[in-house]
Amino acid sequence: xxxxxxxxxxxxxxxxxxxxxxxxxxxxxxxxxxxxxxxxxxxxxxxxxxxxxxxxxxxxxxxxxxxxxxxxxxxxxxxxxxxxxxxxxxxxxxxxxxxxxxxxxxxxxxxxxxxxxxxxxxxxxxxxxxxxxxxxxxxxxxxxxxxxxxxxxxxxxxxxxxxxxxxxxxxxxxxxxxxxxxxxxxxxxxxxxxxxxxxxxxxxxxxxxxxxxxxxxxxxxxxxxxxxxxxxxxxxxxxxxxxxxxxxxxxxxxxxxxxxxxxxxxxxxxxxxxxxxxxxxxxxxxxxxxxxxxxxxxxxxxxxx
Amino acid sequence: xxxxxxxxxxxxxxxxxxxxxxxxxxxxxxxxxxxxxxxxxxxxxxxxxxxxxxxxxxxxxxxxxxxxxxxxxxxxxxxxxxxxxxxxxxxxxxxxxxxxxxxxxxxxxxxxxxxxxxxxxxxxxxxxxxxxxxxxxxxxxxxxxxxxxxxxxxxxxxxxxxxxxxxxxxxxxxxxxxxxxxxxxxxxxxxxxxxxxxxxxxxxxxxxxxxxxxxxxxxxxxxxxx
Lengths: 305, 226
Description:
The structure holds two protein chains of two kinds. Chain A has helices at about 1-15, 15-50, 65-75, 90-100, 105-110, 130-140, 155-200, 205-210, 215-255, 265-305, and strands spanning about 55-60, 80-90, 120-125, 145. Chain A is α+β, with helices and mostly antiparallel strands. Chain A has two domains: about 1-50 and about 160-305, no CATH class; about 55-150, Alpha-Beta Plaits. Chain A has a four-stranded antiparallel sheet. Chain A is elongated, with a radius of gyration of 30 Å. Chain B has a single domain (about 25-50, about 65-225), classed as P-loop containing nucleotide triphosphate hydrolases (Rossmann fold), CATH 3.40.50.300. Chain B contains eight helices and ten strands. A six-stranded mixed sheet of chain B has the order 6-7-8-3-9-10, with helices on both faces. Chain B has a four-stranded antiparallel sheet with strand order 2-1-4-5, with helices on one face. Mean pLDDT of chain B is about 90; it is low at about 220-225. The interface between A and B is medium-sized, with 15 and 22 residues.
């Protein structure tokens, strides 16, 4: 295995400009691939965030009796349409108010828990159930009003926000897959063309080796090493540049999205994601390199043998 | 032993070899002569299985060259020390590296390379040229390097295709003497040539080709023995 590696590196050294061209094309491909992968990750997290928020909040009338509230809770706790149910008592609501007005403690001191309504927060498993649940809650005699945590004003708008998110996420995934596919195919093609060019420059060498009795693998292995070097460098530079961009931009991005974890909040978490991406991209790059080298050598040997 | 049995090779309308039969025993030194296009090189290309015959059978010892599977071709080529008119030395490698390449192809351990390369370098008289690149050598030296590369793997048979084609008479004579010495050491040597001087000087077997046919063989007893 020593000879193919040594010969492969010699091939790279002999034509540095072609090597730079291949590495640059692959670096651009994997730069975009890294960013698209992180975009898909972030949009998925965003969608999951909104999908798992309590979508329906029923504010309980202040004169409602405890057993009536318990009955309503039990009804929805055992409902197959409901993913999660949470009770917010008057005290909890008061605490939330105090937390929200922490910058102005006077506001918290002016009110007492009794003025806050207790509420039931319901997350449905699918948004299509939301309408029915809302209607049922509105008809309940202990419910004062029904609202939404992700509310942008009305029931229609809540649905449309999530629907829009779903559409965007799907579009990002599809467009990302198409873009990544096109870029990887371009990389494969460029690698194939450059490797074919390199092989055609070495046609006499391959012919001589073949006539000396070299096996296909003897001829192919150094060329595969050469292609793998290009792939490794291309993946590394593409991934590294994209990682720098992401690490530079992530504090602003995370601040903008607040509690929504479109990217991991810790450096360690971000490095894990980027590391996993590097591994996956390196694998893809090596597959492209090996396929490109095999294809180019096969074409060349077909002409020689 | 190399044997051709009624071998023909056609490329479309062109017949390169037409019903050629001969048998060359181990240790022989045979000249295959003829004008350009007579079919001399086609014999070498059939022996190293660059292509298969259109008809007929070819045997190299116990190997049926004519129906050899593609994956077995490298092994066959490792047993034939082919010397080409255009040398086929790699310009980016030194002469020593070119010779060692044949050893690498055959899978000889690297620790043996230096000794074997020096040995054949001495044998063919280019020991002091081993560190040079092909572009720094004369035609005769390049042909000697090509012979050294063929010899280094200790092949059963040396097949030299027009080894004196581009050389002056003095250098050509030196190459033929070298091949004769290799033959005296027990190797089968087959040389194709159209050089009249070499043919006149050669005392051994001569096979003459014309338009793809074997028209004369000074050692017919082998064919009759079949």
